[in-house]
């Protein structure tokens, strides 16, 4: 299996983390979003959206979108709850991550870390913080009740939301008022097979 991604990207890190946690043999192919690696004709032939991450199976089939890739890789593993309700809760958090968390926290990080806070995007950057903090507050509330987002079990929901939450400060977010999130971040680093983001 080949996995294409940019190690600074939270979405790509999700895939790296699942691959490592589950000890899945693969070839990691480092791509640079800034250098335009995802827009070459060769890459667009693999993924017409020009996005990463992407996995290429041994039979040539391709799969994109980080949460879909995680679901494929983690099938029949302990990262997906067996209980149907908690499995649905996991999907609830995956959708939350893509619609209510990543568009604010990850985009603010991109503007600050990748682009260097250019003046023409400063107003957009500042506007992202209210909704980003709202997402963090939802997580904080849930984590007052249980150690992980789907209860006692560490799952793909935690991986998906860990990816950009643990680097939220790189987008100007301060987690000082989110003690449950900070404790949760620490718990995740203690999971066997955990690897840090390659930055």
UniProtKB/TrEMBL annotation:
Start and end of every GST C-terminal domain? 83-199
Entry coiled-coil feature ranges: none
A Pfam family annotated for this UniProt entry? GST_C
The residues covered by the GST N-terminal domain are: 1-81
- The name on file for this protein is Glutathione S-transferase family protein
The protein's organism comes out as: Shewanella metallivivens
């Amino acid at each position: 299996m080949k996995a294409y991604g940019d190690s600074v990207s939270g979405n790509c890190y999700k895939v790296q983390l699942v691959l490592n946690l589950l000890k899945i043999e693969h070839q990691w192919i480092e791509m640079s979003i800034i250098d335009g690696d995802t827009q070459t004709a060769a890459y667009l032939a693999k993924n017409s959206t020009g996005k990463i991450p992407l996995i290429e199976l041994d039979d040539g089939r391709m799969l994109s979108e980080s949460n879909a890739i995680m679901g494929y890789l983690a099938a029949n593993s302990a990262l997906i709850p067996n209980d149907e309700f908690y499995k649905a809760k996991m999907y609830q958090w995956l959708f939350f991550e893509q619609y209510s968390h990543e568009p604010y926290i990850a985009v603010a990080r991109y503007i600050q870390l990748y682009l260097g806070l250019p003046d023409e995007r400063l107003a957009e950057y500042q506007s992202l913080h209210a909704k980003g903090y709202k997402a963090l507050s939802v997580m904080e509330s849930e984590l007052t009740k249980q150690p992980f987002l789907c209860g006692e079990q560490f799952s793909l929901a935690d991986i998906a939301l860990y990816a950009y939450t643990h680097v939220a400060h790189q987008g100007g977010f301060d987690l000082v008022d989110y003690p449950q999130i900070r404790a949760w971040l620490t718990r995740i680093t203690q999971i066997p097979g955990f690897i840090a983001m390659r930055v």
